[in-house]
Amino acid sequence: MTDPTARPPIRLVVLDMAGTTVADDGLVLEAFTAAMAGHGVFPGEAAHERMLAYVRATMGESKIAVFRELLDGDERRARAANAAFEEAYDALVAAGRCAAVPGAEETIRRLRADGVMVALTTGFSARTQSAILRALGWQGLADVSLCPADAGRGRPYPDLVFAALMRLGLDDVRAVAVAGDTAADMLTARRAGAAVAAGVLTGAHDTRTLTAAGATHILNSITDLPAILTTADAPVPG
Predict the structure, then answer these.
(1) Residue 184 contacts residue 155 (beta carbons within 8 Å)
(2) Is the peptide bond before 43 cis (omega within 30 degrees of 0)?
(3) Burial grade of 191 (CB within 10 A; 0-12, 13-18, 19 or more)
(4) Which of 38, 96, 43 is nearest to 67 (CA)?
(5) Statement: residue 198 has pLDDT above 90
(6) Is the domain defined by 12-24+99-231 classed in CATH 3.10.20.880?
């Protein structure tokens, strides 16, 4: 008889984009600096450094939510800043400043070939996410691609994981692994009840930060993910 309390095998991997599968290379901070310049906040000023520190700490979260916090809840200014951020980021992508993390595409293809579904998630808008996918030639690479607007709320809420689960017809969060480079990714995974919260060291946050946020595993790269999925109950060293 099957034990209903036993953890099922991993059937879905929810992957972050920028910093995890897509090389960031400082693009987020460049786009942020451009956006805030439009609001009279420039590099070298104390306000800019304070805001930059907040952006670093909240990497992975919904960008509109970050701007709401930075601009004291002023919705009009937050939306304007977010639009400027997206325009700046999209321009960097269009200029060829967008590349995959080495081995990321091959890892996604391997997971799907092994029967594991893949969701690509982001804190960017749908427009920016689509621009990145087009630039990389990744349309259709994953089973589903989601942004905060598709789920209700972005990270660190669990909504993106739940949205992926429902879109793909799964019914057990214990069959989900989440991988990302930020504390927000780890919080999302743990709040959703995912079996694996894999912190990846190719992006914003370090081992200490990821572990403090609840990482079950620390990986040097997303390419290390497939090897841990069959032994997900036993954390591996980073």
Answers:
(1) yes
(2) no
(3) middle
(4) 38
(5) yes
(6) no
Q: CA-CA distances (angstroms) from residue 236 to 3, 59, 77, 142?
A: 26, 24, 44, 26
Q: Say which residue the tokens 């990744």 belong to.
A: 138
If you average pLDDT over residues 98-119, what whole number do you get? 95
CA dist 197 and 177 (Å) reads 6
Order across the sheet with 196-200: list the strands.
144-146, 117-121, 12-16, 176-180, 196-200, 217-219
Is the pLDDT at 25 greater than 50, yes or no?
A: yes
Q: What are phi and psi of 208, to 5 degrees?
A: -60, -45
Which tokens sit at 88? Answer: 């700046």
Local structure of residue 7 (DSSP, 8 states): P
**Can you tell me the distance from the alpha carbon of 73 to that of 81, in angstroms, rounded to the nearest whole number?**
12
Domains in the chain: boundaries: 12-24+99-231, 27-94
Q: How far apart (Å, rounded) are the C-alpha atoms in residues 122 and 160?
A: 9
Q: How far is CA 103 from CA 10, 59, 199, 204, in A?
A: 21, 22, 17, 18
Mean pLDDT rounded to a whole number for the chain: 89
Average pLDDT over residues 201-214: 94
Tokens representing residue 208 in the block? 């200490």
- All residues at 6 or more sequence positions from 197 whose CB lies less than 8 Å from its CB, including other chains: 178, 185, 186, 189, 190, 214, 215, 216, 217
pLDDT in tens, 52-94: 888 888 887 888 888 888 888 889 988 998 889 888 888 888 8
Question: How sure is the predictor about 235, in pLDDT bands with cuts at 50, 70 and 90?
Answer: very low
